Amino acid sequence: MHLNPYGEYAVLLAASLANDWPADRAGIEARTREFGMTQPFPDAPPDHTQTRSVIDDWLTVVDAPDERTRAEVLNAQMAAVTAYPRLSDHDDEGWHLHYRDYGHSLPHVLAAVISVGTALHLTTRGMHRLSRCAAGEAPGDSCSAVVVDITRNGRQRYCSVRCANRAAVRRHRARHA
Prior knowledge:
It is a single chain. By secondary structure, the chain is mostly helical. Helices cover 50% and strands 7% of the residues. It has helices at 8-19, 25-34, 47-62, 67-81, 106-125, 161-175; strands spanning 86-88, 96-98, 130-132, 146-148.
């Protein structure tokens, strides 16, 4: 079975990069492998900096104030980097779709994969399923990690069990103060 890297995996990759930025290009490429991307990327000196720009642009989708703005920003990002869909069997692992041309740089490929993956994630699971950690809303808490909600009920608000537990303790203490 060949998994579609354009759905939740692309969004989880983007969130992983946003929440824990790699120190160098090799770290970015290693992270793409962790999330199922196998195609090699041509090496270019500005890849690390340009990929950071891709992630920063993607964060404007995460931080969009409403669904319509989120859709407009994401549409602009897809229009800037996507190509017509094409069938590929680059690793002899079975035919699958790519929404990008071959031979592009790492940042360009990630911009295409992440934008299309985010669009698929939001349209199939719900436009509300991408946000910042709700723990950051509490006074004194500065967590701003990206949350990609892949839960069944669509109610994930925290980036981790740790942030959820800290918020629960704060609520408990506030009720019993």
